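[job 0412] stage=complex_fold ligand=manganese (II) ion status=START
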Amino acid sequence: MIIVLKPTCSKEQQIKFSNMLKDNYDVKVNVWEGVHSTVLGLLGDTTQIDIEYIDAQDVVESVKRVQEPYKKANRKFHPENTVIDIGNGVKIGDGSLQIMAGPCSVESEEQIIEVAKAVKKSGATILRGGAFKPRTSPYAFQGLKSEGLDLLKIARKETGLPIVTEIMRASHIDMFENVDIIQVGARNMQNFELLKELGKTNKPILLKRGLSATIEEWLMSAEYIMAEGNNKVILCERGIRTYENFTRNTLDISAIPIVKKLSHLPVVVDPSHASGKSWLVEPLAIAAVAAGADGLIIEVHNDPPHALCDGAQSLTPQQFDTVANKVFSLKNALK
Ligand code: PEP
Ligand code: MN
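[job 0412] stage=complex_fold status=DONE, emitting structure tokens
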């Protein structure tokens, strides 16, 4: 962290301010005295320092971070990739390609079992399905809630596929005890109280990128979970809001290699919510794997025109089979 002091800052004030920094934080303070102003260089762990607090001090002209504000999620302090064991032999981040697939929402026992069996046949290793649905309209289908969770567990028993499903509030954590991966949706990426509570569990967390979140904000949300002790965070790029409205969102392909460079956490990509259109899922899935994604999460429905949620972006099991074949052969070719 670099702090430029005001030209009016006296030597005495500078010493007092430097001592305050050394006493309160785990840092060394280097001082460069110029002709008109003095610059302080802080060395050490500056993640705990509130940059706005520093900026608000009378003697400070300006302040700039030179190191990322996240530590636990930072590859600098953890060079090896994090590998997350989901159980049932499924590992995310070990160099393999894992596909999570299933309907946007769980609608009935028949539906979830039929889709689970089909996606498993095509190579999916994790079953997705929303039980609690964050919908833009309060009048839209809100999910089967706890009944949806029970149906996912039945489908897991039938197929052996671990399950991933979205949580919307911290008071539901007990209900999610038997879920294999807890998803934090885009809309809740900055629900910090929820993130903190999930950080106290030891469940793998699928952390979706917020609709307009920067990469740093997304990694800071991962840091919230990790700061409480849970290191099992899987990042999910699901498209961001841009001026383009042909697609539902804009898939930020460059976020994949960027996040893998900045962080050791695994990254999966959701081409369904990124595009909003079923015919775009295949090219985006291929692009994501080519860019280094550790996994994909894809919406699949046995009857997309009658889906209660996100039918337009859902693949039929047959279409999913084609996409899965292509991405697995691409992954093999890249090895
Ligand atoms: C979902 O995966 O069902 C979902 C609602 O996704 P997102 O939070 O990315 O919109
Ligand atoms: Mn959906």
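The mean pLDDT is 97.
[job 0412] exit 0
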